[in-house]
Amino acid sequence: MSLVLDPAAQDLLFREARTANTFTDEPVTDEQVQAIYDLVKYGPTAFNQSPLRITLVRSAEARERLVQHLAEGNQAKTAAAPLVAILSADNEFHEELPALFPHFPQAKDVFFGERPVRENAAALNTALQAAYFIIGVRAAGLAAGPMTGFDFEGVRKEFLDDDHTPLMIVNIGKPGPDAWFPRSPRLTFEDVVTTV
Questions:
Q1: Which of 16, 20, 25, 157 could be 11's S-S partner, Cβ–Cβ 3.0 to 4.6 Å?
Q2: What is the pTM for the complete model shown?
Q3: 105: closest CA among 51, 50, 44, 48?
Q4: What is the C-alpha radius of gyration for the chain, rounded to an integer number of angstroms?
Q5: What is the pLDDT at residue 1?
Q6: φ, ψ for residue 3 (rounded to 5)?
């Protein structure tokens, strides 16, 4: 059975897409970011909890503050990317559940009254939303450079608060010269799928 999605779209989102390491200086607009969010917000999360929070780093001053918390190999590309997004988990996402999960507003307290439970749920569901975000960046015709090579606690203290946990940093823009490393191998269907 073939996929319904057009092969060109499949290539754009998956087969030809890679983590970008260089970018042009073409700006990424607020309208583009809004369009990305307006698409990816429909990706599913448990209880529709939607814990992803996005901090856009645009100013030179903020960029300088962020770069000091990155691993050395990530600093130059983040300094040069047109836009950088800090993706974090809102550990107080449950406060939005009465609006986001209206058919069972009690879920806020029944399932997520304890902070450790919320942190675990937020970490998993923010990871899902981060993947949707990366695909959304690709759908916008942009390249994404997601990274976890940074001082998580330093970034949290610099840009967030105690209720937010950083998950990844994503450089965003049009790919620049030599943007891609060679494609790394993937596991085969037989390596991954077991039928019982």
A1: 16
A2: 0.95
A3: 48
A4: 18
A5: 57
A6: -80, 150
